[in-house]
Amino acid sequence: MDGAKTELEELYCTVVSEGQGAGLPSPTDFKRNDPGVQALLLRRPAGRLGLEVPQVSGTSAKSQPPHAKPEPAPAETEDDPGPTGRLTECRLEGKRITCPQRRFELVANQPNSKLAEDVLEPDNRLGLSSFKDNRNDEEEVRRYLSDAYDRYIPKMVDIGLGANTMSFTAFHNAFHTMEEGGVDFARRMEQTFALLKQDKKSLAVKARYHDELPQDLSLCTVINRDIVVCDNVGTNWVFVSPSR
């Protein structure tokens, strides 16, 4: 990006130069977004590089104070693919991601006969909490959406719809569209989840709806020790450990 003028634009350049920008918009389109959206777009690819996204306040982006301590990295176990959000020692092999001590297989939608008992019943809720903070506080929005997405993906896998998930970008856009329209995002997502379970009981689903595969691990991030998600903004792929 020529003439980066803000810390977010500089971070964009760093992410792209390090090979982690495959899922990001073009430099021109990136600049058209407001700082809050730019920060959200950069959160996951920057995290894969161990970089912090500058805090956003109003229309400016400021780095955290020098004395602020970064959050400690989660302790790794022998079976973990690597630090949260990073897959530096892993290989993308078509429908498989292979790591030194673990592998992940591209998940397909599953028939009900392969699902856990009662997973389609009303008691199995998505369980997102409603957003109660200031929607203009982009740091709070980022934290909320990250936690919500990390819950949403495993829940979709549980009900056999792992091949029908939203990308993080789509998830973020849905949040802002709903909240700006006066709709509680968590409540609407819960209603949608209930409808998906109801439909799943009676309607057959295809294992997959396309044959496209992710082209690079730069598109991928760790959701938890058993799930990796890859997306190119338009398409989402969920990879699950066979041990899950």
User: Total helix count?
Assistant: 6
Low-pLDDT ranges = 58-79
How far apart the termini lie comes to 41 Å
The H/E string reads HHHEEEEEHHHEEE
* Strand runs, count: 8
Round the mean pLDDT to the nearest integer and report it: 83
Q: Class by helix and strand content?
A: alpha+beta
Rg (C-alpha, Å): 18 Å
Total individual domains? 3
For the largest beta sheet, what order do the strands appear in spatially?
3-4-5-8-7-6
Instruction: Outline the biggest β-sheet.
Output: 6 strands, antiparallel
Rough shape? Answer: globular
Question: How helical, in percent, are the residues?
Answer: 25-40%
What proportion of the residues form beta strands (DSSP E)? 5-15%
Features:
244 residues, alpha+beta, 3 domains, six-stranded antiparallel beta sheet, two-stranded antiparallel sheet, 6 helices, 8 strands
SSE map:
Elements: H1 7-17, H2 27-32, H3 35-48, E1 55-57, E2 60-62, E3 91-93, E4 96-99, E5 102-106, H4 138-158, H5 168-180, H6 185-202, E6 220-224, E7 227-231, E8 236-240
Antiparallel strand pairs: 1-2, 3-4, 4-5, 5-8, 6-7, 7-8
Helix pairs in contact: 1-3
Region (Disordered): 55-88
Please explain how this structure is put together:
By secondary structure, the chain is α+β, with helices and mostly antiparallel strands. The protein has three domains: 7-62, no CATH class; 76-108 and 210-244, no CATH class; 113-207, no CATH class. The chain is built from six helices and eight strands; from the N terminus they run H-H-H-E-E-E-E-E-H-H-H-E-E-E. The chain has helices spanning 7-17, 27-32, 35-48, 138-158, 168-180, 185-202, and strands at residues 55-57, 60-62, 91-93, 96-99, 102-106, 220-224, 227-231, 236-240. A six-stranded antiparallel sheet has the order 3-4-5-8-7-6. It has a two-stranded antiparallel ribbon with strand order 1-2. Helix 1 runs parallel beside helix 3. The longest helix has 21 residues, at 138-158. It is globular, with a radius of gyration of 18 Å.
